[in-house]
Write a structure and sequence with these properties.
Layout (H helix, E strand, L loop, with lengths): L7 E5 L4 H12 L3 E6 L2 H13 L3 E6 L5 H15 L4 E4 L5 E2 L7 H28 L3 E7 L12 H22 L3 E9 L6 H4 L1 E2 L14 H13 L4 E4 L6 H6 L1 H17 L31 H35 L4
Parallel strand pairs: 1-2, 1-4, 2-3, 4-6, 5-8, 6-7, 7-9
Length: 335
């Protein structure tokens, strides 16, 4: 595509947060925006917002864990606008707390939403792409935790690592016999109302680890991928943590586990356990931002920077120690 004007874009999880910001970004580019989410009233409001920005829109109430509803979303988009050009698997949520304290049904539901939801979406979009001569773009909103495992969010990490693997495998498969592109977007913590929708078993109010990424920034990168697809986009300074994790995964993991236990389980305001929006929708407004970390952002940035430096130092020391030991073994006399 040379322009997004009149392109048909389907976005799941479009009633708030990254999904709503993305819908608005495409509407400003005069695209046909098809919005899918569970919250009907918020979805209708989001569609009106897109119309006001200059794009044509269609709202289709959709639970991404139901394959029939996702197929209907695709059918409605193609019927209304003559086809589908871009499909964005954005619907998802997070879950925090000690693994053993989280009910198994909640963990299974999270996997359904985050991983199977994207599989359902891709499976529904592909027949329409093939009908158009094997052209189209699938964009999966993954997470930094599809690259770096997060203690105290084990099943969330599993869902996002699974989505990252699915994205990579599907990209290679489709490249072998079509012009369909598959892209992955990996944001760090994003300032969305996710604290309302996330399942929380920490005993404390959920807080982000800054620096927090603006949802509009994520949306702009997604719109850019629709025009110029590429393998992956990483957003947020926290992606620097990939380096110590690769150099010394054990020591880095222990450090992150200790910091996470203090930050998530032992500090901040107390809060009752909640399954968030896993099974039922959460009453809220059609908001892009959640105001995460605003009162304490400067202080938290300093704490995060110090933690990153300490983690990198520990990882580098462990890596150098392993290298020296390997060199000593190689130089040891034989016989």
């Amino acid at each position: 595509m040379e322009s997004l004007r009149d392109a048909t874009v389907v976005i799941t999880g479009a009633s708030s947060g990254i999904g709503l910001a993305t819908a608005r970004a495409f509407a400003r580019r005069r695209a046909n925006v098809v919005l899918g989410a569970r919250r009907h009233a918020l979805l209708q409001q989001a569609a009106r917002d897109c119309e006001a920005l200059g794009g044509r829109s269609l709202a289709v109430t959709t639970d991404v864990t139901d394959p029939a509803q996702v197929r209907e979303l695709a059918r409605a988009a193609a019927s209304a606008f003559g086809g589908i050009d871009v499909w964005i698997n954005n619907a998802g949520t997070s879950m925090w707390g000690p693994f053993e304290a989280i009910p198994l049904e909640s963990q299974a539901r999270l996997i359904e939403i985050n991983l199977l939801g994207a599989i359902n979406g891709s499976h529904a979009a592909l027949p329409h792409f093939f009908d158009q001569g094997g052209r189209g773009v699938i964009i999966n909103v993954v997470s930094i935790f599809g690259r770096v495992p997060m203690p105290w969010a084990a099943s969330y990490s599993a869902s996002k690592f699974g989505l990252a693997g699915f994205t990579e495998a599907l990209r290679s498969e489709l490249a072998a016999h079509s012009r369909i592109k598959v892209c992955g977007v990996y944001p760090a913590y994003v300032d969305t109302p996710t604290y309302l929708n996330s399942a929380n078993y920490t005993g404390r109010a959920l807080r982000p680890v800054p620096p927090v990424v603006a949802p509009e920034r994520v949306a702009e990168r997604i719109a850019g991928l629709a025009l110029r697809p590429r393998r992956a986009v990483h957003l947020g300074a926290l992606h620097a943590s990939v380096v110590p994790c690769a150099l010394a995964p054990d020591s880095t993991g222990r450090l992150v586990g200790r910091l996470g236990r203090h930050f998530l389980l032992r500090s901040g305001p107390q809060a009752a356990a909640s399954d968030g929006g896993l099974f039922e929708t959460v009453p809220a407004g059609a908001e892009v931002r959640g105001g995460w970390g605003i009162p304490e952002r400067a202080r938290a940035k300093r704490v995060a920077a110090v933690a990153a430096i300490v983690g990198l130092a520990e990882a580098s020391a462990a890596f150098l120690s392993r290298t020296r030991r390997a060199g000593s073994v190689a130089r040891a006399p034989r016989g």
